Amino acid sequence: MHTDTHGNPTRATILWLLLIVATVLTWAVGERGSSGVLIVAFLAVLSIAKGSVIILDFMALRRAPLMWRVLTLGWMALVWALIGLAYWNGMPT
Fold it and tell me: What is the pLDDT of residue 91?
């Protein structure tokens, strides 16, 4: 494995463990039944962070051409913008 492209196993293991912790935290918030704008914002930020780690590190796009990073991270940003817009429009006034 070429470490310049794919990072190193120690970094991958640490990131994987952080992803597991973030997933368990998300599950715990759901099990608790927490809601509200701050909770939704927290979960959105956590989700964006997880998606960025997956895209940049596990899909090995951190050192890929800029176009691929822009396309993948831009797609995630667009999806979250649409989710945020739907959430905002569904909020009571």
Answer: 82
